Structures are given as structure tokens and as C-alpha cells.
Fold Class I SAM-dependent methyltransferase.
Amino acid sequence: MVGTLLDALGPARGRSLLDVGAGTGELVARATGAGWTATGCEPEPTMREVAGRAHPGLEFVAAALPELPFASASFDAVTANFVLNHVVDPRASAREMTRVASHGGLLAGTIWTSSPSWFWLEVCERAGVMPAAGERLPAHKDFERTVGGFSAMLTDAGWRDTSTIEQTWTWEAAPETLWSSAEGGVASAGQFYRSLDREERARFRSGFDEACAVHARGGMLPLRHSAAVAVGRAL
């Protein structure tokens, strides 16, 4: 999905890019390699440490949507890879992306439309912990997690000329990468892990290892996903 977003932005030509919710820093690193002047922002200290170790010399700022510590029109492009489906105010967050983008600057984002939640449910079962029921956003802040719902939300937030498509693929995930994300508090699985006490975390890790041993093929986990990919422009 990182490659899809970068392809949608076109050639770098020395332009500047901000990736919000940078996670492990893969998008920032690949954008830098492609010629962008790229900056990442990531609110979770553990994930910033992971990104810093993996990509020394790149910049990862402690910041999160919907309020970013950058002046208006600071970047030629702004990306949010699987971020807008997790924030507390999706429209305010998408609007903040337009604020820090230059006039006519490119905006790109992705959300899950279908993810392998079955895997984490199995981890919980093996660990003997009750999975989180999950909380919906208030109706006035939420949006339908479909291509049409994502596109409509972004339009409400001020994105212009937005094109949204759905992509389905099987992610061959390295268990250690998947665990780093969960341990770092990323997405619902990570948030759930962070809510556990010390003993429950140890059981959760054991359940994770057991599930990986059952489902991994050639050392990788095949996880089927569907995502909505949107590309638009700021005013």
C-alpha cells in the first residue's frame, strides 16, 4: 500500500512530503529514497523508536492528528496510511491535512474496509483474554467504512477532486513486524494489548506465537485485506 500511495503522488521532483501516523517509518523511508524531502509524525514513542532504529537519519516528529505542529501550507503532499479510520475525529483530521498542505497540494489516505480481525480474535482465545468489544465514534463524527463513505467524509473535510478506489490483497506479514505494531499500540490490536496488565500481556504474546505457528507459511503470515485508497487536493 505504501507503493500505491507514492505512485499516486507522482514523481518527487524534490517536493516535500509529510506522512502522518508514520508507524515504522516505511513510507517516509521509501519517499526519501524516491527523491522526496520527507518528514514523518508519529504520536507513539515506541513506534518512533522503531522507526528511528530502522531508518536512522530520517525525521520523525512527536505529533498526531487532528492538531499538527506545522505552519499552514508547509508541505507539497500529505499522506495518512491507515490512520483516518483510527482517529477520534476523522473529519477534523482530514481537514488538518489540507491545512498543512500547500495550495493545490496532494493529499492521499487509506482506510481498512476489511481486515483480518479473525487472527487477533484467535490470539485472544489462545491467550484466554476477553477481546475488546470496540467502540464506535459518535454518529456525527463517524463515517461508513466503504469506498463511498470514505470519499464522502473526505469531501466533507474539504478534500477536492478526490478519487477513491478499493484494493484487495493478501499481505505476507512477518510475525516480528506484526508484533512490533501491536506492542507499539498501533490500531485496535495494539490498543487492546496496551490495555492489558503485565500477566495478560505475557499470555497475549504466547497466544500470538501459537497462532503464528499454526498459520504461518514459510515464516510469513498470509493475511487478506481490503482497503479504500483516496487521492485528492487541498484548496
User: Anything to note?
Assistant: The CA atoms of residues 126 and 154 lie 39 Å apart.
